[in-house]
Structure of Malate dehydrogenase:
Amino acid sequence: ANAPLRVLVTGAAGQIGYAIVPMIARGVMLGPDQPVILHMLDIEPAAEALNGVKMEMIDAAFPLLKGVIATTDVVEACMGVNVAVMVGGFPRKEGMERKDVMSKNVSIYKAQASALEKHAAADCKVLVVANPANTNALILKEFAPSIPEKNITCLTRLDHNRALGQISERLDVPVSDVKNVIIWGNHSSTQYPDVNHATVTTSGREKPVRELVADDQWLNTEFITTVQQRGAAIIKARKMSSALSAAGAACDHIRDWVLGTPKGTWVSMGVYSDGSYGIQPGLIYSFPVTCEKGNWSIVQGLKIDEFSRAKMDATAKELTEEKSLAYSCLN
Ligand code: NAI
């Protein structure tokens, strides 16, 4: 049998936390043959609720679950973890300035970076979910210099999955037959959901989404805004933000990263830019990636038209601004 892997979930008493911990314990994230030990972190005001989640995890008697730690101590939480899913953060409250929210999250991610750097397993894979996800991941990277930059990522898989879902609904095909959409850039409303290389498998053949949808007007406008604003639409409907889909996407992200993407399929991940596609190095930017043996690599050589170029640059510009705002909070 495999030795258990330790998985940290921060913000584990929150909405996404409650949805993701049973998924992890059922093998959705690391596979049905991989035992896990869960490390759940939250802050003092949520300690009692966190303990309630721990009680339920015990009561669920998951066969793969070999231990549960519930703690408000960041050092204990990070000790020896192989995977870190960073969901905890400071939410934007009504009337708050962007800078104030940024400042709170910068200090959280700075502190948690140091704890991970000192106490996590050397090859720990980190996924930042909490918003502003790209910039929180960048801060984490900056303050954990001994963690390889390839190991620090942020979640845009939810946006990717939303794009697959919209195409699937529009064409009335199973979502599993749609692939290779791309989310470029920031996990925010400036993200660019790109279908120029996406395909649908019909009667055993892969066809371009552009050919099957045949309504460029819809693809270039409504499709894009629907994906960009899906988070807000969920809040409006549910009065709470996406949680089950976010938890599912976080599991998809780690699973594909660790176990590999299927041949001929790529996914979107927020990763440290190496300058691919003319995106400034030093940003955490969402790219199309394939994964093999625990490593991701950016898909190269995709043709970028003028429409895409402008949208890819606009979201990069927003990330540059977020980065300088984050740095101004450090001083
Ligand atoms: P939530 O408010 O229900 O839960 C957040 C939890 O984090 C709370 O239990 C809170 O006590 C905890 N927390 C706050 N500061 C912490 C700290 N320093 N250390 C550990 N825990 C801390 O929020 P929800 O709905 O679970 O969302 C979590 C985050 O994920 C939010 O920032 C949200 O904006 C983001 N999000 C990102 C998505 C993405 O696709 N990247 C999708 C959906 C949400």
Q: What stands out?
A: The pocket of NAI is lined by residues 10-11, 13-17, 41-43, 46, 87-91, 108, 129-131, 133, 155, 158, 187, 241-243, 246 (CB under 6 Å). The first helix runs from residue 15 to 25. The mean pLDDT is 97. The radius of gyration is 19 Å.
